[in-house]
Each structure stands twice: as C-alpha cells, then as structure tokens.
Amino acid sequence: MSQLIRCNIIPTLGVFQVWRRHFMVWRQTYAASLAGNLGEPLLFLLGMGYGLGRFVGEIGDMPYMHYVAPGILAASAMNNATFEALYGGFTRMTRQNTFHAMLATPLGVSDVVAGEILWAATKSLIAGIAIFLVGSLLGAFPASTALLALPVVFLAGLVFASMGIVVTAISPSYEFFLYYTTLITTPMFLFCGVFYPVSSLPDTVATIARWLPLGHVVSLTRPLATGLPLGNPFLHIFALIVFTLLAYSAAVFFVKRRIIT
Amino acid sequence: MSAIIQAKQILKQYNGVTVVDRISFDVQHGECFGILGPNGAGKTTTMRMIIGLAGVTEGQLHVFGYPMSPEQRLVPPRLGVVSQEDNLDIDLSVSENLLVYGRYFGLSARLIREQIPKLLEFAQLSDRGASPVRELSGGMKRRLVIARSLINNPELVTLDEPTTGLDPQARHLIWQRLRALKEKGTTLLLTTHYMEEAAQICDRLLILNHGQILDQGTPADLIKRHVESEVVEIRGCMLDSDLDCFENLPGRLERVGDTLFCYTHNADSVMAALKDHSALTLLLRPSNLEDVFLKLTGRELRD
Ligand SMILES: Nc1ncnc2c1ncn2[C@@H]1O[C@H](COP(=O)(O)OP(=O)(O)OP(=O)(O)O)[C@@H](O)[C@H]1O
Ligand SMILES: [Mg+2]
C-alpha cells in the first residue's frame, strides 16, 4: 500500500501526446473499427428491441425498444473500453513494446496509463455516438435530454478502461482475459439492468447490481434517454468517479510493477 | 571533464538472483563506451538501469550527475534510447514515427517538422518517409530506431545491440553514422556481440560475464593485456597423436574443434617450425578483441 501511494500517479500534459498517437493509429483503420463498434450493438438493438420487444411489449409505459436502447448504449461503452484496454493495451504493452518506447522519453507510467484510458474512453464515446445516431434514426432515444447520455458514456469508458488496464497489467497472456470477461463484465452485462429492471432480481442481488459500475451507468443513461425521473444523478456520477480513480491508481501501480523491473 | 555516467558498485538482483554483480565504470563526455558480453551477461539489464527502466538493487548510479532511479524524469530529455528489441509503431509511417516520438518529448510542431528530413537523411530513408514501418527491412527499421532516438538532440545515446541481425552493408552504414555522432560530441554507450564493432567504434569498453566485469580499457590495451600480439591458426591433421609435434612451438596453444590457435609474440619462428608440414593450412593474423573475449569468457556456448 505504501508503494501504491509513493508511485507518481498524477499524469502530465504528455498524456495528450499518448492519446494523439493512439488516435493516429486508429485513423489508419477507422472504417473497419467503426463497423465493429457499430455492428454488434446495432444487432442487439434490432434483435432485442424489435425481436424480444415483440414478446415483452412494454416495460413501464414505454416500448421495449426505448427501454433497452440506453442499456445497450451503456453496455457498449463497457465493452468497447474493456476490449481496447485489454487487447489493444496488452498488444501495445507486450507485443509492440509501445510502453517501453514511451517510457524512454520524458513520459512517465502515469502518462502512458492515463493516455491508454483516455483513448479507450474515446473509443467508447465514438461507438456511443454511432449507436446514438443510428438509434435516433430508429426513434430509440425519444427524450430531449438523450444527448446528455453521451458524456455518461465517456465517463463509463473511463471506468471500464481503468479496470481493464489493471487486468492487462497483471495478465500473463491474452487467454487470461476470459476470466475477467466471464467473471466481471459479462455478469454486469446480464444483471445490471441493460435488458430488464434490476428490481426484478432478488433484493440482495439487486443491491449489488445497482452498486456495480455498469449499474450506475445504466441508472444515468436510461432516465436521460427516456425522460424517466433521474433520481440522484450526482450519487451515480460520484460513484463512477471513485471507481475510476481507484482503478486508475491500481493500473499505474501494476503497469509500473510489470515494466519497471 | 566530468563523467556522464558513473556507476559505483551497482548490484541488480531479480528474486534474489544476482544479474549484475557490483560493477563500477564511468563513461566520459564525448566518448563511445562499449559493453561486451555473451548472452545473458547482464548488458541489457545494465542499460535498463541507466535509462531508468530498472531500479538498482544496491550501489550508486549517476547519469548527468543525477542519482538515477525510475522515479526521476530529469534525464530522459537529454537521452536517446535504442533498445534491443524494436519498438517502432508498425502501424504508422516512417515520418509519423518520428513525429509521434518528438511529441513525447514535448517538442514544438515546427521543430519536429524541421528535424524529420534531417533524421531521414541521416538514416538514409529520405525516400521512405511515407512508407509504413511494417514494410521496412530489418536494417531500415534499425536505422529508423536510431534516427528516432536523436529527435531530441540527446547528449547521451544508449544503443543495445544496434546492429544485431543486420547484413555487413547495413552494419557498416550504422557504424559510420555512430562515428559521425561521436564527432558531433554525442556520448555513446553501446552493447554488442560483434568484436569488430567494438574495435571500430568504441574508445573504451568493458567485458561483462555473468554480471561481473572481467576487464575494461581501450581495445588496444585489452589486446595487449590478455593475448600475444599475433596468432597462427592451424587447420588439418588434427588427430590427437599429431598434437605432440606442436608442443614445442614458441607460443600458447589453444585447441577449438578442428583448429589449433597458436598465440605468439614470435610468429616468424612459429611459421618456420611449421613450414615442413605441408598438410596443414596456416593462417597468420594479428590478434584481436575476439581473441581477448574468447579467452576471458571461455569458448563454450552461453545462454
Ligand atoms: N525482469 C527479469 N526478471 C528476472 N530475470 C531477468 C529479468 N531481466 C533479465 N533477467 C535475467 O538477467 C540475466 C541477464 O539478462 P540481460 O538481458 O541483461 O542479458 P544480456 O547481456 O542483455 O543478454 P543478450 O546478449 O542475450 O541480450 C539473464 O539471466 C536474464 O534471464
Ligand atoms: Mg540484451
């Protein structure tokens, strides 16, 4: 713990140069990347919204499509940030030695890690915007406040990217990621209110689900996109910021331990 | 003149295993200093400590007068690093690699734009600026890594095996570039397996084995100190029974596989003594760093 405190976790302005590098690489292949970002959530939106929606009919007073779209927006933020932090981050850290190259310059571990996280969150945002545009065309985001769900998507990206980098830093290989997705992100995907109300779960499970990061994200995106009452948004935002800061500090610590030997 | 790098009794252990064993050396301003050693000797580990990617377990390491540790970031702006394994951005073009790296140093866009053509020229990659790095040959990549390490006009450049795996032409080009850098006053620290490389460009060097320094000095000093001035390589009729006839040669004999090395200060009499053995192939040459290296580190395979 004392080591955790001692390591320098505040990034410098260099973090933006790290972000720019990732952006530059992404630009080379953005078409394929966007297609991937958009494809899967779009399938969910259509399959769940229309397919399942036909059986479910309405939840509360709204069509299932309206209900599920902000859930899918939140889940895609989680999945995109997680994927980038795990597979992209691991490739850069091990295969391409990008982290080592950066650390031979005035950049520090905190810059490299914060740059990764900022970039992964950006990818969540890019995917979120794409889903938002297509979803809007389908009329899936009816409320006038729906646009405000996008900053939440970015915040969600920060949370899940930070958690992802921790996993990347302690993983011996790509296979290890399956533990994380199976034990952490897939359960959140299924139990945190993406597809159905958390309140339909047993009480204890529901409480846990609400407190998991994705639970907070959904608690924000759904009211914003549908116009339902927001409850206490600051509590959720605060919780997400706390998750981000904790995971980020751990990420810096573990990346440092992995690379600076 | 002050030392750019000063290592005093530095020790590095991984999980209790000693990898670098209390070595001391210094690198002076403007010189090219070489670290020679077989695989696993601790060369890369030493480099990593100097550039702050590894902590020192014990001892003192100063670079530009600052105590070196992974925490401090005062040294990197004055440092250029060429690491053993390539770490270019293979998805970006040659010029973009330089641009991105310059930004890491916080250089202005204008300065980077001015630097790029010069660095491309230095690396003989002027016509490849727009090529994706994944299309470059090994030699081109290595040259690019070296050019990239110069983007911040460093006072000290560390190069970990800059020419390993390259063909002779590529290697000679890099040597020429490194000499040009030295002429400009840049201090160089490099590791290598190639004795010719060390002899060609290093002013001073140390030989590392199992983390320990076997000796250090100028190439000429090392040769004088450890081996006789010339060597006759003898091949052919290498049956054990034949060895007797070589016993009286005026030199130190060393047998490696099918070759007998006779290290001597008196090559003429060795050649004269052997002139009647027409079945032998003889090669007389001045002894070199490789002879020193093999004598000090032994001839068996390393890992
Ligand atoms: N992070 C590490 N953890 C544990 N052992 C390590 C680590 N890094 C290096 N070593 C060990 O330290 C020893 C020296 O390694 P090093 O890479 O410094 O050798 P080298 O002289 O550069 O070899 P080569 O010529 O093959 O590059 C080796 O036995 C290696 O296994
Ligand atoms: Mg090495």
% residues in beta strands of chain B: 25-35%
Instruction: Specify the overall morphology of chain B.
Output: globular
Span from first to last CA of chain A? 18 Å
- Counted up, domains of chain A total 1
Query: Within the largest sheet of chain A, what's the order of strands?
Result: 1-2
Oligomer: heterodimer
Number of strands of chain B: 14
Q: Give the helix tally of chain A.
A: 11
- Strand content of chain A is under 5%
Radius of gyration of chain B: 22 Å
Q: Rough shape of chain A?
A: globular
Q: Which molecules are bound besides the chains? A: adenosine-5'-triphosphate, magnesium ion
Low-confidence stretches of chain A: 1-6
- Considering DSSP H and I runs of 4 or more, what fraction of the residues of chain A is helical? over 70%
Short description:
The complex is a heterodimer of chains A (261) and B (303). Helices cover 77% and strands 2% of the residues of chain A.
Describe the structure.
The complex is a heterodimer of chains A (261) and B (303). Chain A is mainly α and 261 residues long. Chain A has one domain (13-23, 30-259). Chain A has helices spanning 2-6, 14-28, 30-56, 64-95, 98-103, 109-137, 149-170, 177-191, 203-211, 213-226, 233-259; strands at 58-59, 62-63. In chain A, strand 1 and strand 2 (62-63) form a beta hairpin. Chain B has helices at 43-50, 94-104, 109-122, 138-148, 168-183, 195-201, 219-226, 267-274, 289-297; strands at 3-14, 17-28, 32-36, 58-63, 66-67, 79-82, 156-160, 187-192, 204-209, 212-217, 230-235, 252-256, 259-264, 281-286. In chain B, the strands form three sheets. Chain B has a six-stranded mixed beta sheet with strand order 6-7-8-3-9-10, sandwiched between helices. A four-stranded antiparallel beta sheet of chain B has the order 2-1-4-5, with helices on one face. Chain B has a four-stranded antiparallel beta sheet with strand order 12-13-11-14, covered by helices on one side. In chain B, helix 2 (94-104) crosses helix 3 and helix 7 crosses helix 9. At the A-B interface, helix 2 and helix 5 of A face helix 2 of B. Bound molecules: adenosine-5'-triphosphate (ATP) and magnesium ion. Magnesium ion binds next to helix 1 of chain B.
